[in-house]
Amino acid sequence: MSLSHVDALTPRQVELLDTWLPGAELSRDHGWGLVATTVLEVVRAGERFVVKAGGERDHHIRRELRAHRSWLQSWTSRGRAPVLVAGDEDAKVLVTRYLPGRLVLGDPAADDPDTYRQAGRLLALLHGQLAVVDGELERRENARALAWLDASHRIDPAAEDQLRAQLSSWPEEPTTVVPTHGDWQPRNWLVEDGVVSVIDLGRADLRPAMSDLTRLAAQDFRRDAALEAAFLEGYGSDPREPAAWHRARVREAIGTDAWAFAVGDEAFEAQGHRMIADVLGIR
Fold it and tell me: Which letter does DSSP use for residue 2 in this model?
């Protein structure tokens, strides 16, 4: 199937793809339906590529292109992340070389401590290449969490009152930020012959290092402490300062719950409810 027949692509995106990959044919649609990002596996002259294209409200493609161009050399030089072929921020489209492997999520590798040890090493490479101080991050993150609470959600009113009280009481001190993946968990890891690699940089940004541990802590570390121990061994240290870590977990819980409600993902929303109960100590 020609890419010009893919309804989700804009005319400008098709024009660019025809320039970058003339004659490419669609092999498989990897989209997961909850966000306005199209993910296509395509074939041209016997080579496989991945096309990612954003819709009108997409803000992930620009982030992903920034990550590919500025921060991924430590991974791509080791064959542990896709190599960027071409991209256009304004058209919201990019092409990478296909990276072989099975998703760790749902695979036996998701229960293997060595998977997390390797993931820790990879994350340390990403985090270790740059560190700057952001004087406004805490204010922005608190405002974002409050905006989620101001939007439609199904958070218990009493819990919402407690969350708002905490957000209003926190200091807004300068914070050291590093390049982060933004969605660091098994659904964005591949495994091939026992080697772990990384995909999907659509949430990459400068944030505190510990922010890349929030989703693991809410899911995989929670179910098996051995996975957490292996991850920290690979990473080389534990970046979680207790007070800042609590703030990060609260904001992550709010965002998870409200975002999942907004997109209609009831299972993820239930996880958000549990995360809120955990950070508030509700049993």
Answer: B
- Helix 113-127 × helix 225-235 angle, to 10°: 40
Q: Give the pLDDT confidence of 255-268 residue by residue, as tens digits.
A: 999 999 999 999 99
Residues 6 or more apart in contact with residue 46 via CB below 8 angstroms: none
Domain 103-280 has CATH 3.90.1200.10: yes
Quick check: 9 and 41 in contact, CB under 8 A?
no
Residue with tokens 């009152």: 161
Q: How far apart are CA 64 and CA 83, in angstroms?
A: 12
Fold of the domain spanning 3-99: Phosphorylase Kinase; domain 1 (3.30.200)
pLDDT score for 1: 61
pLDDT digits (tens, 9 = 90+) for 84-131: 999 999 999 999 999 999 999 999 999 999 999 999 999 999 999 999
